[in-house]
C-alpha cells in the first residue's frame, strides 16, 4: 500500500513536506494533494516495519488465545461425545488455527533470519504477505470455531445462516471497508 494511503503523520505532525502549507509537497502549493512523505527507501522500510509489527501484535494475541483454547477442547469430558462431523470440524479448526499462528509469527522469524543483510524493504514486503495470509487463515479459523460451537450447542437449521452472517460481518470489517476507504480516499478524479 503506498504511503499516502496510511494517513499517519510525519515526525513534525504533518503529512510530509508541504503539509503545513497545504500543498502537495512538490512545491506546487496545490491544496489537498499531499502525496506522502519524502523518505529514503530505508526510512520507509523502517516505518512500514514498525507499523506492521503493531498490526501483527493485535492479530497474534487473538489467534494465540483462540488456538490455545482449541488445543484444550480435546481434553474435556464432552469431547468423546462429539459425532464424526463435529470431530472433523474440530480437526479442521485446529489445523486452520495452527496455520494462522504460523503465518502471523512468520514475520518475526523472517526478520530475525535476514536481519543485518540490508534487505529490509524486501523483508517488509514478505512479512506483509505473511500477515495478510495469517489474517485470511484467522478468518477461516474463527468461522470454523463458531460453526463448531454453534453446531455442538444446537443442531438447529439456522446455524449455517448465523455463521454466514458473522462471516459476512468479518469480511466487511476486515476487507470490504478498508478496500472501500482505500479506493475512495486515494482515487483521483
TrEMBL record:
Matches recorded under Pfam families: DUF6328 (PF19853)
Keywords per UniProt: Membrane, Transmembrane, Transmembrane helix
Sequence ranges of Basic and acidic residues compositional bias: 36-46
Gly residues compositional bias, start-end: 10-30
Region Disordered, annotated ranges: 1-46
Transmembrane segments: 58-77, 89-110, 130-152, 158-181
Coiled-coil annotated residue ranges, if any: none
Name used for this protein in its record: DUF6328 family protein
Organism in which the protein naturally occurs: Streptomyces coeruleoprunus
Amino acid at each position: 500500500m503506498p504511503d499516502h494511503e496510511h494517513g499517519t503523520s510525519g515526525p513534525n505532525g504533518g503529512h510530509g513536506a508541504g503539509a503545513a502549507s497545504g500543498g502537495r509537497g512538490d512545491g506546487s502549493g496545490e491544496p489537498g494533494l499531499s502525496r506522502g512523505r519524502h523518505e529514503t527507501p530505508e526510512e520507509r522500510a523502517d516505518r512500514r516495519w514498525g507499523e506492521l509489527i503493531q498490526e501483527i501484535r493485535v492479530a497474534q494475541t487473538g489467534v494465540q488465545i483462540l488456538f490455545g483454547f482449541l488445543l484444550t477442547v480435546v481434553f474435556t469430558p464432552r469431547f468423546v461425545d462429539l459425532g464424526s462431523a463435529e470431530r472433523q470440524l474440530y480437526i479442521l479448526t485446529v489445523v486452520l488455527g495452527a496455520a494462522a499462528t504460523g503465518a502471523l509469527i512468520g514475520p518475526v522469524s523472517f526478520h530475525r533470519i535476514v536481519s543485518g543483510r540490508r534487505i529490509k524493504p524486501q523483508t517488509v514486503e514478505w512479512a506483509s504477505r505473511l500477515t495478510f495470509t495469517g489474517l485470511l487463515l484467522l478468518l477461516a479459523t474463527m468461522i470454523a470455531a463458531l460453526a463448531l460451537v454453534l453446531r455442538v450447542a444446537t443442531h438447529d437449521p439456522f446455524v449455517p445462516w448465523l455463521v454466514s452472517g458473522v462471516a459476512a460481518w468479518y469480511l466487511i470489517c476486515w476487507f470490504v471497508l478498508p478496500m472501500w476507504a482505500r479506493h475512495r480516499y486515494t482515487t483521483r478524479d
